[in-house]
Amino acid sequence: MSERWSPGTRIGYPSGGLALAHCRQRFLLGPQGTLFPCQWLHERGFPVLVEHVLGSFDGEPVRLLELERPVELAGCSWQTLRQLMLESDVETFRLLGYASQIGTWARQHRFCGSCGAPMELLPGERAMHCPHCEVQHYPRLSPSMIVLVTRGDEVLLARSPRFSSVTAP
């Protein structure tokens, strides 16, 4: 990863540090950005579904607060990851991409897919555990890759058959 952003799951992080507020694919954005003092966010009384340790950013522990619903806060707005792409530096955007995937996974795995019982966060791991039927669910992170196929000065171009055919002039 990078020097500024380091992922982690350990519960041993101190209770202070920074936090991101996330709800339904949106992050809370304030005048200082998306990272808020964790204690300050907790004091606002947000309806937190689950809290996950994400790792550290600039040496500070970072948590994700996945909210039940977006809450209006003076001077702040809710922004999608795409909207934040051009407003954030590369390292912050990397953190936000990771947090978005963890937040979505946490929201979608609150209940066991096998028996319907409430899931619990497995201590020390990035996993949800069903105490009733012992099923464990891990997040499915979605990396992507882009490939350029070349031969000499030639480039292979392809298109989906769903798109209309266009002839070159």
Automatic annotation (TrEMBL):
An annotated GO BP: NADP+ catabolic process
All copies of domain NADH pyrophosphatase-like N-terminal, residue ranges: 20-105
Keyword presence, DNA damage: no
Keyword Signal attributed: no
Residue ranges of domain Zinc ribbon NADH pyrophosphatase in the record: 107-138
Cofactor names: Mg(2+)
Protein name (database record): NADH pyrophosphatase-like rudimentary NUDIX domain-containing protein
Coiled-coil region list: none
Molecular functions (GO terms): metal ion binding; NADH pyrophosphatase activity
Natural source organism: Azotobacter beijerinckii
Keywords: Hydrolase
Pfam families associated with the record: NUDIX-like (PF09296), Zn_ribbon_NUD (PF09297)
GO CC, one annotated term: cytosol
SUPFAM superfamilies (UniProt xref): Nudix
Gene3D superfamilies, per the entry: 3.90.79.20
